[in-house]
Write a structure and sequence with these properties.
Blueprint lengths: L3 E4 L8 H8 L7 H19 L6 E7 L7 E3 L5 E10 L5 E3 L5 E4 L6 E4 L14 E7 L10 H16 L11 H7 L8
Antiparallel strand pairs: 1-2, 2-8, 3-7, 4-5, 4-8, 6-7
Helix pairs in contact: 2-3, 3-4
Length: about 190
């Protein structure tokens, strides 16, 4: 099951002024459009790589505790575990002690390890476990790797110039090349 975003990033990896400078736009008439292109480019890069560029909150929902006592993060880079709960058969949630979990933030994707003896089994058979995490490179665009920011710039320019054209996956070749080393794949 994918990670569900529960907290939007506080800022974008590129400012409106940075985007306008890259586009060589000196007027303010299209600021709203360009700001929306910045967000669209961030979402496209995050979707293609399964990486959060700016720190944001996500919820991972599971039906049961996985074998091996480990939960791979659905989004990278994993920064923190902020909550965990199980749901009873009636849907009521019970918070779990976060000390029952340890994080491997060095791996990509990060891994949440848990002690099976310390976590309750869910009574709700579908979506009975909720894990809340924080993921992202940091609080501002300067913490984001430059190739990801450049991919955003190229996407913003592409969206700005080709408002009526859409590629198969929405990504020009140059953007795909910049994102390739950052893609998080599942086995």
């Amino acid at each position: 099951m994918p990670a569900i975003q529960i907290e939007e990033p506080a800022t974008e990896p590129l400012t409106l002024n940075e985007a306008k400078a890259f586009l060589r736009v000196e007027h303010d008439a299209e600021d709203e459009l360009i700001a929306s292109l910045v967000k669209a480019a961030r979402v496209a890069v995050e979707t293609a790589t399964r990486r959060a560029m700016i720190t944001q909150g996500y919820r991972i929902v599971l039906d049961a505790w996985p074998a091996g006592d480990r939960i791979p993060s659905r989004v990278s880079p994993l920064r923190a575990l902020t909550g965990a709960r199980v749901r009873a058969g009636n849907g009521a949630g019970t918070d779990l002690d976060l000390a029952s979990f340890t994080l491997d933030t060095a791996s990509s994707p990060g891994v949440i390890h848990f002690d099976r003896g310390l976590v309750a089994e869910p009574g709700q058979p579908i979506a009975g476990i909720e894990i809340e995490i924080t993921a992202g490179y940091g609080e501002d665009g300067l913490s984001v790797p430059e190739p990801l920011r450049q991919a955003m710039r190229l996407l913003i320019a592409h969206y700005y110039e080709h408002r009526d054209r859409v590629e198969k996956d929405g990504l020009p070749d140059a953007v795909r090349a910049l994102l390739a080393p950052y893609r998080v794949v599942s086995l």
